[in-house]
Amino acid sequence: MIKTILKLASVALFAISTSAAAMQLPHQGEVLETMNSGGYTYVKINEAGKDVWAAAPQTNVKKGDVIRFSEQMTMPSFTSKTLERTFTPLIFANGFNVRK
Prior knowledge:
Layout: H1 2-24, E1 27-37, E2 40-47, E3 50-57, E4 66-69, E5 73-75, E6 78-80, E7 85-87, E8 90-92, E9 97-99
Parallel strand pairs: 3-8
Antiparallel strand pairs: 1-2, 1-4, 2-3, 4-9, 5-8, 6-7
């Protein structure tokens, strides 16, 4: 009986921690395009049918990867001087969590 209760409690705690992680990393999508420049990785993902650009410290990601991240700041328009490209808008993140 105690083993069953402990097993149920551990399943419940896992579900809670998984839900908490999902809330902390609310953005998720498949990488459609990626590039590295100036110590940052820029990715275009498809999130719920909408293309979104995000940038984080350089991370190994490739087209087709599914990533999650939380938004630290969004700029309505950001021009990367090293890429000579403007992203409208661009979400800045602390990092990308790559799901394999």
